[in-house]
User: Fold this.
Amino acid sequence: MSLSLASHSIRAALLGAALLGVGTRLPAQAASTSAPSCSVGKAPAGSRVLVFSLTKGFHHASIPSGIAAITELGASHGFAVDTTVNPAAFTDDNLRRYGAVVFMSTTGDVLDSAQQASFERYIERGGGYVGVHSATDTEYDWPWYGRLVGAYFKRHPAPQQAKVNVENKTFIATRCLPAVWTRFDEWYDFREPPKDVSILLTLDEGSYTGGGMGAFHPLSWYHKVGDGRAFYTELGHTNESFADPAYRGHLAGGIIWALTR
Assistant:
C-alpha cells in the first residue's frame, strides 16, 4: 500500500469514527441534565383541611384569592379542603374531621368561649394549625391563642418591596425558597417577638422603610403545642401573593407539615 493510500485510509477511519461519535466528547450542555424542580411533596393520604376566614376587624380583600389558592394546592398536594366563616364549625365532633385548620387572615374575636375550648382540645390532642397574615391580628384576649399563633400584630407601614432572609433551608415550607427572597407585601411589626418557636423567615429592615422591630424581625415560624403542630406566615396580604409559585410552595409546605403526624 502506498503512503498516500494509507493516509487516505486513516483519514477515512477517523472521519467514520467522528460521524459515529466514537471516541468523541459531547458538548457539556448536551451531556448534562437539568436539576429536578423543588417540590414540597404530598400530604398524608386522606388529609382534610378546614379554612376559616371570619373577620371581626379589618377584612383583607385577598381572602378569596387565599381560599382559592389553598383549594388548588389541595388538589395538587393531596388534601381535601372545606371552607367556612361560621364559628359554629368549632365543635369537638366537627374538628376531629380535619388534620389542620387554617386561619386565613382572620381578625378580631372570632370564637366564643365554648368554641375556644373545643379548638384548644383539638390542637392539644394532635390537630394542626396554620395562621396566615392577620391571623396574628386575632383573639388578643385569648392567651392560649397567643401562644399558638406565636405573636400579636402591632403595626405596619405601607406595603412595599423588601428582602426576606430564609433562616432554615431544610424545613418543608422554606426549602424551595431562595436564601434571600425579594418580594412585595405588607410587613407587620409584632408586639413582641415569638418565643419558644423555630424561626423560618426574618425581614431585613434595611431593605424597606417603616420597620420597627430592629435587627431581629421574624416573619414565619413553627412549633409544637401539646401533641399538635402550629405554623405561621406573616406573608399573604396581596392577591398577587397567592398567584406566586414561591409563596404557594411556602404555604403548601406549612400546611403539609401541620397535617403530618
